[in-house]
Specification:
Elements lengths: L22 E4 L4 H13 L6 E4 L3 H10 L20 E4 L2 E4 H9 L17 H12 L2 H5 L19
Length: 160
């Protein structure tokens, strides 16, 4: 079980995501990642999924809090490094890469949860496809100079 103590300067509620639904940690300057956040918001009208940019203090605090659960190489070396993946915090656990994406689908409306069955495919195969796209995401989709700012309607879903 993950310790529920908040990191200094971070809202305790933001560091206890398992009690309030899943939290997606994403690269806030990546256009593909921001499009994925928009996709989730549009398909989660109940607002179950919350978000934090990995470049934010809250995002880095949450990542540090759950880091011991992750395989080596998933974490950025520093807060300003390009994050190698997205992370999903759900039920007191953290997931990365393809597993994070597939588990996230379970929280969306429509037929999207059906695609989460692909979690049964070998993780090495799934992550190889994920990594292929992730390594090229800035070249293919571009990047912003700063993190995405939520609209006033979305603000309650963003942790930092």
């Amino acid at each position: 079980m993950v310790d529920a103590k908040a990191a200094p300067g971070v809202d305790a509620q933001a560091t206890a995501p398992s009690e309030a639904g899943p939290v997606l940690l994403f690269d806030g300057v990546c256009n593909l990642c921001n499009a994925a956040v928009r996709f989730v918001i549009d398909r989660d009208p109940q607002g179950k999924v919350r978000f934090a940019a990995l470049q934010s203090d809250v995002g880095m605090a949450l990542l540090a809090r759950y880091a011991a659960q992750l395989p080596h190489g998933s974490l950025p070396e520093r807060a300003n490094d390009d994050p190698p993946t997205v992370f999903l915090i759900e039920g007191g656990r953290i997931y990365d890469r393809s597993t994070a994406g597939l588990r996230l689908l379970k929280h969306l409306n429509g037929l999207w949860p059906v695609l989460s069955v692909y979690v049964v495919l070998p993780v090495g195969l799934r992550d190889a496809v994920y990594d292929f796209v992730a390594k090229r995401r800035y070249r293919w989709f571009g990047r912003k100079d700063s993190c995405r700012l939520p609209t006033p309607d979305e603000a309650r879903r963003f942790l930092g």
